[in-house]
Amino acid sequence: MASITLSLPDDLALQIRAQQQQLPRILELGLRELNASGQSGFDGAADVLERLAALPAPDEILNLRPSTRLSARVAELIEKSRAGEMTPLDEEEWERYEFLEHLVRMAKAAAQLKLAPSAGDAH
Length: 123
Prior knowledge:
Largest sheet: none
Strand content: under 5%
């Protein structure tokens, strides 16, 4: 196992000391995020989650669509799957997109329910 010495701001060093046992996992996840940020698709997923986190109006949720980059990455993963060329990292990424799609579907279903009573009031 390799050793690394780092110089960190005091507040960050305190946080790391509190999570010392988890440090290898924290670094692994952080590196994965950094590497992923350069790939198309992850930014699109973040955009969707940020929009949902902003608690948009029901009609805004129903109009939510994936970005061009997200759509392109999903299409790329589908093609890799069809060709039998998905790596374990591709599989993990696909699972994240499936979960994201599930969240969006749930949000859209809830938005539709919120809009349904107001549509009945118009009669």
